[in-house]
Amino acid sequence: MRIRTLIYYITTGFVIGVIALVAVQYITSANVRELITTNENLLKEYRLSNALVGLQKDLLLLDNNMKGALLPGDSARIRDFRISVKKVGQDLRILENASGSDTSLHEMIELQRLVSRKLEASQSLVDHFYRIGTTDKEIQSEKNEATKFTEVIIDLTHQIDSSGKQTMAEKIKLVDRSGQRVLNWNFYIIVLVLILLTAVFLVIIGRMKKQAGLIAQLNRSEKKLKEAALIKENFLANMSHEIRTPLNAILGYTNLLQRKNLDDDSRLHVTTVQQSGETLLAIVNDILDLSKIESGMMRIEEAPFYLSELVNSVAAMFHHKIEEKGLKLSVLCSAESPDRLVGDATRLTQILVNLIGNAVKFTSEGEIKLDIKKSKSGTDRISVVFTITDTGIGIGEDKLETIFERFRQAEDSTSRKFGGTGLGLAIVRDLVYLQNGEIDVKSKPGVGTSVEFSIRYKFAEVENMERQRDVIQPYPEHFNNLNVLIVEDNVINQGLMKHIMQEWQVKHKVADNGTTAIQMLEQYDFDLVFMDIQMPGMDGYTATAEIRNVLKSSVPIVAMTAHAMQGEREKCLRSGMNEHISKPVRENDLWRIFSLFFGKDASASNSDHFEVIDLTYMKEISNGDTAYEKMVTEQFLTLVPLEIDALKSALLVKDFVRIQQIAHSMKTSISIMGLDCLIAEDLDMLDRADQNTADFPAIIGHVSDVCTKSLSEAKLLYSRF
Ligand code: ADP
Known about the structure:
By secondary structure, the protein is α/β, with parallel strands linked by helices. 64% of the residues lie in helices and 11% in strands. The chain contains 20 helices and twelve strands. It has helices at residues 3-69, 75-98, 105-132, 137-258, 264-294, 307-317, 319-325, 345-361, 414-418, 424-434, 491-503, 514-523, 540-549, 568-574, 587-598, 616-622, 626-652, 656-671, 676-687, 696-719, and strands at residues 303-306, 328-333, 340-343, 367-376, 381-389, 438-444, 448-459, 483-487, 507-511, 528-532, 557-561, 579-582. The longest helix is centred in the N-terminal third of the chain and has 122 residues, at 137-258. Residues 463-476 and 600-608 have low confidence and may be disordered. It binds adenosine-5'-diphosphate (ADP).
């Protein structure tokens, strides 16, 4: 039964029930009223009957007293007679009051008339007797006449009494009948209400049963959905593993090939293979990101970060590309504090890199602007609006709606001309939405494009952001004393790892599954184990558990996993491993691991401590990618001396506009080495038009000193890459 029909039936039943109850109530109250009236009439009838009996009695007494009064010589009887006359008069009045509406008016009038006549006759007889003083014949006949009145009156009272009783008996019968009727109605109504209640109860029970069935079905579907999500997660992990493993080999070997002495042709081929490999890896990463977002596995982390540093480092990433294309990148950040925010810096970097990357890709001349506006939103939050504007090819109005869809590009020729898969903006939009933000794009073909997105961040507690001076792990020097165990089933990856180890002159052995690895660990001493996770036979997790729990060994174990899924690193660390690197394995990652475990200062004190540069932010952004670290250090070493020279020359010729421009641009260059806390304020002063220019020589002197010191430290850092 549908819910509408059910509601209809319940409402109809309720209305019928209410009408029936009202009807019964009405009939019952009418009956009660009738009962009350009948009872009142009965009472009157009873009073009338009593009054009639009283009249009869007093009439007989009157007759007796009249007879006594007519006896000569008994004067006392005359008094009794008079009293009787009075009494009968009173009886008449009582009778008048007691007569009910049902008593026949005619009979009552007749009774009154007869009683009055009787009284008159009796009185005139007694008067006559006392006037004449004898009892002659005439008096005798008058006496008989008066006595006869009494008989007629008594007959009439009997008649009145019995007719009243008869009327009452009929009324009582009527009341009985209607009472019975009400009882019957009450019974029917109760039966009807019970039937209705039972029907409603049965329907409700039926629906509850149906609902319980639906809930059970929903639970089953939810379980199936969860299973499907788990299968999808496993599928993604496996796919990621399957694709990244050969990619690992391709990128690793091309990397090695790049270092050989190749002729120009071969170098070009190797570079092409490497670039294609990198592109393929980027596509795989994009698809994985989308899948993670779709299956709800993309988590937004909350950690404190400096917005200006993040933005400057993103800008630094594009420095080469911008220069190469002859473009200009300017970053405008509203001075509104705070700069220390809490949110997902990695995802913000990913969004900015994607959008600025698109702007650079689709712009051949002109300028790219990144404008950042902050506005307070509540007591502990700030809304940050980022606008990336370019002077590129633009997007047709009809395409603006679709460019955020997956695999959609504005033009069919875009992929051919500019490359790309059409996934970037879809990921960007999802990442913005995941952080409860908004995104919008405006564009005009041939004029340029402007993408605006906003995200709300919390302010960071200052203590959380106390920047620690980074301790640089010195590059390892004598690796040939080390003995490394490579646990890997894939022959190509084994070959790649072996090759790198040979190049580094590191002693090593290879096991192709967990069981063999454990046997080898029992036989030999190893300084480090690289452990693949997915292997036939015993997998990496089980092998690690055995090494820790059965062999009781604390040898450092580094997971090598092709799973790029969220939480993979945490899972490895939880299962007893010490570090994690993801495939494709890069030489830089291996260096990082060796530096971490076997660098000179790995166990020594923090003696190699930089005085000026602070690498926290660079490390945070590079996420262990030493190639990136090397590149930005190189940029710093090239750019900063030029900028310092330009600053000094501009000061000499008092070109304050130029000083402002250089100071503005320097903010980007210096942030990667963490110099913000030392000279950002100085650069801000130089960048402000209203600043007193008399202070400029001192400010520029301070900036130059800090930069000179930082350059010598950066050179030292560079020599270690
Ligand atoms: P991809 O850049 O890999 O093609 P995206 O999802 O990042 O994919 O962008 C989708 C499409 O939107 C691009 O192919 C391009 O046609 C258009 N587009 C995005 N950004 C810009 C821009 N700044 N200028 C012009 N067109 C753009």
